[in-house]
Specification:
The longest helix is centred in the last third of the chain and has 38 residues. The chain is flat, with a radius of gyration of 51 Å. Strands 1-2 form a two-stranded antiparallel ribbon. It contains four helices and two strands. It is mainly alpha-helical.
């Protein structure tokens, strides 16, 4: 029988024995230190230390000693007579607040006075539930029964 010829390869067959490519060897001492920094998505990625952004400076500790209840400089101003204008402004503000409170209480009290007057002027029979009057109710029921016949 006649066998078909074998297909010819389309790629070149190396005639020499296979030799791997030479890779560059990088030693850890030559590379330098590596730091891990967060990327834009929050993942930690390695980066050479000389290319990394500078670390954020540590904030200075705060002074947490309690402040005086009243300002000592303001107390000196009031004692020296300089704070007379400030005192007058404070008194004026207090008087304004008192007048606002009086006006608000007056309008609220006016509502209660109006309700008291309406209750006093209401008829006794409306309040008593109608016991003093007579009401006649007439109801007529007419029923007609018709049968089919």
């Amino acid at each position: 029988m006649n066998e078909p010829p074998l297909p010819t390869p389309t790629h070149s067959v190396p005639t020499e024995p296979y030799a791997p490519e030479l890779a560059r060897v990088e030693l850890a001492a030559e590379r330098g230190p590596i730091v891990w920094v967060p990327d834009a998505y929050g993942r930690m990625v390695p980066m050479p230390k000389d290319l990394a952004p500078p670390p954020t400076p540590r904030p200075e500790p705060r002074d947490l000693t309690p402040l005086p209840l009243l300002d000592p400089i303001a107390q000196r101003f009031m004692g020296a007579g300089i704070g007379g204008g400030a005192l007058a402004a404070g008194v004026g503000y207090g008087v304004g607040e008192a007048l606002n409170a009086i006006a608000g209480a007056g309008s609220g009290a006016l509502v209660w006075v109006a309700l008291a007057v309406l209750a006093w002027r209401a008829p006794v029979r409306a309040v008593a539930g109608g016991r003093g009057s007579t009401v006649n109710i007439r109801k007529a029921v007419i029923k007609r029964s018709q049968f089919h016949g």
